[in-house]
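Chain A, query sequence.
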Amino acid sequence: MTLYPNNTNKDFQVSPSTLLFYTCGATLVVLNVCGNLLVIISISHFKQLHTPTNFLIISLSTADLIVGTTDVPFLLVLKNPDLHIDTTLYYVAFMCSGYVTFLSIYNVALISLDRFYALSNPFQYSKKVTVKVISIIIFSMWFISFMYNLAFVYFSVISTDELGIWANIDFIVSFLLPCCAIIILYTKIFVIARKHAISIRCTREQHISGTTKYRETSFPREHLERKAAMKLGILVIVFVMCLLPYFIISQLSTIVPATMFVHVRDATVTILQLNSAINPIIYALLYPWFRRCAKLILTLRIFRRDSSLSNVLTKTGPQ
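Chain A, predicted structure.
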């Protein structure tokens, strides 16, 4: 697994467009790594954040981190015409790219399922969906994803006779099924959230002459779950929007002219990889707890004794 220069005697020259491309790529790597590490450290360190949903977010951030440390650097190397990429390295990178894409899609699908179950059966959710259960699910997902992508690389790349069959199977398994599940689940989530909002509004109108305390504590659990679902809904929508162009253009490879296809495909891959750096920004914009955690981490206050017990969910937390 090595890289070989095509021409060692050639003078090294960098055009402005190439310099801009590598600068943007390096910036994307830095944003990806720093942002996702902040998410992983925040949820791992602060015990208050040890919830099933947040463990799914850790899994998603880990997959995004792998994109930033493997996929993007490999793309930068691949764009250098002066380097010849060893075949073994190419297969490893190809599998890694499919692996993290598969993981990201199914992580988002699991987050959608988690929010749907929490909204539709809030009391059963708190009893049945524990950190232990969700950890087993996450481990199983990573293992199954690895085995699937190992088989996909072997049959579709090494054994080219079945390339078309595996391309269709991968499209269904890696995109169509999880995306349909995500869309259906979040459609149901929005319907349930709307019903909850109407119920809360009707109750407040019926008790308009009641006490302020009663109005503020009406349906507290449902209200919190609804807000959490709506915030994660933004993450899901952005993810699907970044994912769709890549899989659409992949299915049009036989229709789009070859020269145009290469450029469009590269653009959609860039958008897909950009999503891995966007997610931490979404957390920072939507979640006050993430901003508080980031402040504690960047100021090195997480090294204080009992910092893991800090209250990061409310404004009365550490200053």
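Residues 253 and 261 are 7 Å apart (CA to CA). The chain is about 75% helix and 0% strand.
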